[in-house]
Design brief:
InterPro entries: DUF2336, UCP035865. By secondary structure, the chain is mainly alpha-helical. 75% of the residues lie in helices and 0% in strands. It contains 23 helices and no strands. The N and C termini lie far apart (88 Å). 34% of the residues are buried.
């Protein structure tokens, strides 16, 4: 009887009064001591108010119900599809919205809704996966910034593919230890592309120099990535590089000179198609001709393969005190440079020399820092 009187009153009351009454009705519905019959009547009244022409009436209900897990699902879903101000209230806060609800809302209600979902106090893997597919840059930034968002590695990779060109998203992704290796490598290439596309760099440096800088930056970053990867991720990265034609002699030499032996040997397994045990045995103790044959089976020409043979022999004799600088110096001393500066061997030895100079500079910086601290 009370609800019937309420509905008759609603027909003539002012919008501001209807809004106050709607909020009171929603709060009354949530009271634990409300009898079942009264609760059902209150639900019917709220469903009726969903059709009210005044947005403030529906907003009042949304604000009263948004934080309660006992809020009526039918009313919450209707409010979630209302105009932006009303929908935002329940989408951002309501625990009644299920994982499928949020996935559907993210896919069909635009960037504002997706952003609110990305910023919720809890975001599940399925919801994160949906946002990774349909979210815009702002939405995905909110998702990555949300410490309560559970994001699968596959979804991180998808975000990297879709928005690797965005510096802010790259920064958040690269700081995540769970970012897959192939996604990290893709982002490294995006950073290098940004460098070569920088207008000042294009003005100051010739194009061939920019391309070399891009290639060297990618190789350096890849070695940093490879040094921290578990075996499974390392194999995935190697296969991606191989399929993209980026598992080059320069990258292999970079790995060997910087002590990424596991990456180097796994790459040889992939390139030579020999058994892993056989490759490891040849690298560790094979005769010179057998080691050269291994490198040739990986696609290296004989002259380039001989440089790798020399590097392998030096690596065998190295100990824990052998630095990258010392390794590179020994390799440069043991290899003869061809007269042709553009020959593949010359280019490979130039890379070794650059690595050696870089290591010397790094050691000098460390020495200077230690001296400063001691002073």
């Amino acid at each position: 009887m009370i609800i019937q009187a309420f509905l008759r009153w609603v027909e003539t009351a002012r919008a501001s009064d209807r809004a106050k009454a709607a909020g009171a009705l929603a709060r009354a519905y949530l009271r634990p001591d409300l009898e079942a019959e009264q609760r059902q009547a209150a639900l019917m009244a709220m469903c009726h108010l969903l059709n009210d022409s005044a947005p403030q009436v529906r907003l009042a209900m949304a604000e009263a119900l948004a934080d309660s897990p006992q809020a009526p699902r039918a009313v919450i879903l209707a409010l979630a599809e209302d105009q932006a101000e009303i929908a935002c209230t329940v989408i951002a806060r309501s625990p009644v919205l299920t994982e499928p609800d949020l996935v559907d809302l993210a896919a069909s209600n635009g960037s504002l809704t997706a952003g609110l979902i990305a910023a919720r106090s809890k975001v599940t893997r399925a919801v994160s996966a949906a946002l990774a597919e349909v979210g815009d840059e702002g939405t995905l930034l909110l998702l990555l910034e949300n410490p309560n968002a559970d994001i699968a590695r596959r979804s991180l990779g998808r975000i990297a593919v879709r928005f690797g060109h965005c510096a802010s998203i790259r920064r958040w992704l690269l700081e995540r230890p769970d970012l897959p290796a192939d996604a990290r490598q893709h982002l490294v290439e995006q950073v290098s592309a940004a460098l070569t596309g920088w207008q000042l760099a294009r003005t100051v440096l010739p194009q061939n120099r920019l391309e070399r800088l891009k290639s060297e930056a990618c190789e350096t970053a890849l070695m940093e990535i490879a040094g921290d990867l578990p075996a499974v991720d390392s194999e995935k990265l190697i296969e991606q590089l191989r399929s993209n034609g980026k598992l080059t002699p320069a990258l292999l030499m970079h790995a060997l000179c910087t002590g990424r032996i596991a990456f180097f040997s796994s790459a040889l397994v992939r390139l030579s198609r020999l058994e892993e045990r056989r490759v490891h045995a040849l690298l560790a103790s094979g005769r010179m001709h057998a080691v050269r044959a291994l490198f040739e089976s990986a696609g290296l020409t004989r002259d380039v393969a001989m440089v790798f043979v020399e590097a392998t022999l030096i690596w065998r004799g190295a100990d824990e005190l052998t630095t990258a600088d010392k390794f590179c110096s020994q390799l440069l001393a043991s290899c003869r440079r061809p007269a042709d500066a553009e020959a593949p061997v010359s280019q490979l030895l130039n890379l070794v020399e650059k690595l050696q100079r870089r290591e010397v500079r790094a050691l000098a910086r460390i020495y200077a820092e230690d001296a400063t601290l001691a002073a």
